[in-house]
Amino acid sequence: MKEVRIHGRGGQGGVTSAELVATAAIAEGKYAQAFPSFGPERRGAPVAAFIRVSDSQIRTREKVYHPDIVMVLDPSLPALVNVAEGLKDDGIVILNTDLSEDEIRDKFGIKSKLAMVDATKIATEELGLPITNTTMLGALLKATEIVGKDALFEALEKRFGRLAEKNKAALERAYKETVIVG
Amino acid sequence: MIPEFEKFKGFKAKNLPKDEPLSSGHRACQGCGEVLALRMVMKALGKDVIVCNATGCMEIITSPYPHTAWRVPWIHIAFENAASVASGVESARKILARKGKIPKKHVDILAVGGDGATGDIGLQWISGAMERGHDFVYVCLDNEAYMNTGVQRSGCTPYGAMTTTSPPGKKSFGQVTWKKNVPAIMVAHNIPYVATASPAYFVDLMNKVKKAALVKGPAYVHIYSPCPTGWGSAGERSIEISRLAVETKVFPLYEVIEGRYIISRKITKPKPVTEYFKGQRRFRHLDEDHIAYIQRRVDAEYEKLLRLAEMG
Amino acid sequence: MSKRVGIEVSIAIAEAVGLARAEVIPAYPITPQTHIVEHLSEMVANGELDAEFVPVESEHAAMSCCCGSSAAGARTFTSSSAQGLSLMSEILYIPSTMRLPMVMVVANRAMSAPISIWNDHQDIMIQRDIGWIQTFAENGQEAVDLTLHAFRVAEDRNVSLPMIVNIDGFTLSHVIEPIELPDQEDVDKYLPPFKPRYKLDPRRPITMGPVGIPEVYTEAKVAHDKAMKKAKRYILKAWNEFEEIFGRKYNPVESYRTEDAEVLLVTMGSISETAMTAVDVMREAGQKVGLLRIRLWRPFPGQEFRKAVGKTKVLAVIDRCLPPGALCGPVGAELRSLFYKIPGAPKIFSFVAGLGGRDVTVERFQEIVDKARQFAKKRPRELYEVIGVREK
């Protein structure tokens, strides 16, 4: 079973990206859960969402304490939130950032494996909006094998209809531009 | 104007319906003006009706299991919620008719409650049902206090009246607040039909109830209902007291059709309120100052009503 | 064919209510129940469900409206949580003794104060005695299946009682997970149209909700109690029929790895899934631990529960509710009276855990089992213990 924690700000679509990954995994015949950090959500405030994906039935309702993967949608969050908290030793942090690896390690003290992509730039160029939740899924695909691209694209189409094409393009570009280190 | 009214010729004293959906033999007190009013309401509505009754005297006296005074379908759930129960009945009939599970024939839905059930504890429930626009009639039978529990004051108890929770004493003169204007609250909901009625003018009462039923959407009729037990009046005087309430302008009769006030019975030569107070123990303790205040306020309230009617 | 989809549990419940062809849905928003009725109102707005959605002004009005709707003969559904459920409380006792079938999904949530929107069972435990049939779902699939089952049982003329399906707020209501959504044809086969024996109909006038004088009140309440007890047979029958059509089997009490168990955990609702994982972990470590999950809470399946306990000597009962000043939590109390003076009865230890959204983890279950073993050797001073209380 793989566990993912997504950090974003209220309104950035972290819950939607969790939903997309989970529904795609379920469509592939796997088992999955996606859920928000339970409670009232305010636009702009730091929030989290969670995903579990497994080949067998998931029998837990615990919160996610030790994620395998952490995905951060907003470049300003690692300075405010300990995004690597509880991360498994062989876990990976996927960041939306325009900083270099050294700068990230230096500024935020993240020691784990890293995947980096400037999703804000990609989303702004491809979608016309700095909303990175679908773009970052490209980085997630590159960094992990949690779900297949076809299933994810299908989930995107279902969710976004005619807007899916742009989101797919942003996702593809992020997939190509993501750099994995450590 | 309301198109549904055009075909309705109105009841006359000579051609009143013979049906009695509410039968005699119930357990009301002698001279109960409320059950008399309810009988007229039911005569006006006829047999094609479903009644949702709030807890109160009318519910108690008509339904002591295994007896019932009701010849029409009737339901009682609780005190404050007759309007919500009616919402449920109306919604159910709408969908069942749409699905062809019941005949399409129109059935009136009546919610009925006392002044406590209507103006106090049930106000929110009625407000919700009115605002949602359910097609039903709400009738308030106003006997101006909580009679079923033993005559406690309500928001509809008149100024100065003695009840068991507004007793006159060394530091009190009875009810200290003016009667809540529940019909005005209903008018504020922009419902198509609001009226006041009195059992002393029974043809007028029945016509108003019928119009309330004919109109599409929610309608409200507020009916003055003398309570000999609670008011300390003689049972045989209930109709006389009802008439005096109108003639002294204490309880004016009017309709509000699509927001327009129409006075049903203009009082050109009003009797003094003291005429109305006579023979009602609940007002016996009032001194001249209080009576003078009540007279001034009754006059002023009636003037307000006249101005509303003039606005058309 | 049914389809397996990734779907939020609340949305799936709304879909089930749609498949059940609910006709009147009075609803008022309250977290964490809201997604259910939001989706239903959407289905009605889009013409996917032919129903009257009544956006009432309070939960009290919702339940009142449900009474009118059911009495008039329409299939009736609503949903609520916590403060809203408590606001309904006055009315909840009425449709049950009046034998008005309806279905309510309660997204279980803690009661104020302090205000908490998060999950536990306090809201439903204070409504324990309302005389509704009550089940608890442990995952999204069950939430869907039990909702369909509830309509089937409630409206059975041999039952004619309102029914509550409890689902844990957030931990179930807000989770996207794989759920088999049944086929409309199968649901229609399982669930015949609602045909109440009595209804408000001018063609056959009846008086409903009369005054119960002392000469009849006791009999009315006894009739209700008998109906609840008799209902169990039809609850089981409806589960059997459910299995025949949909292939999923439900029991009033479910056993998990109870063979040769020295200690049995007892749970209700979604913590049962974590408890199963905890049992696996403990079994792996050589501990003889099993689990009993109570699915049917009212009428309480005493016989089935006793049978499920078998020869196990220690029960560790988990309540998601802390009634201040009581001897122990309601589930603990229920089981203590079930086994009172029964020869060979197990020792029953009562625990309170998971209040107001506090997580009940695998480690917590281990702690509970350890404590139960300890208590079995040396009787504890108190009749219950609250698990996971922070020291500071």
Keywords:
heterotrimer, A: 182 residues, alpha/beta, Pyruvate-ferredoxin Oxidoreductase, domain 3, seven-stranded mixed β-sheet, 7 strands, 22% strand, C: 392 residues, Rossmann fold, six-stranded mixed β-sheet, 41% helix, globular
Q: How would you portray this structure in words?
A:
- The complex is a heterotrimer of chains A (182), B (312) and C (392).
- By secondary structure, chain A is an alpha/beta fold.
- Chain A is built from six helices and seven strands, in the order E-H-E-E-E-E-H-E-H-H-H-H-E.
- The radius of gyration of chain A is 15 Å and the shape is globular.
- In chain A, helix 5 (149-160) packs antiparallel against helix 6.
- The two termini of chain A are 23 Å apart.
- Chain A has a single domain (2-181), classed as Pyruvate-ferredoxin oxidoreductase, PFOR, domain III (Pyruvate-ferredoxin Oxidoreductase, domain 3, 3-Layer(aba) Sandwich), CATH 3.40.920.
- Chain B is of the alpha/beta class and 312 residues long.
- An eight-stranded mixed β-sheet of chain B has the order 2-1-3-4-8-7-9-10, with helices on both faces. In chain B, strands 5-6 form a two-stranded antiparallel ribbon.
- Chain B is globular and about 65 Å long.
- Chain C has 392 residues and is an alpha/beta fold.
- Chain C starts with a strand and ends in a 6-residue tail after the last strand.
- At the A-C interface, helix 1 and strand 2 of A face strand 1, strand 8 and helix 9 of C.
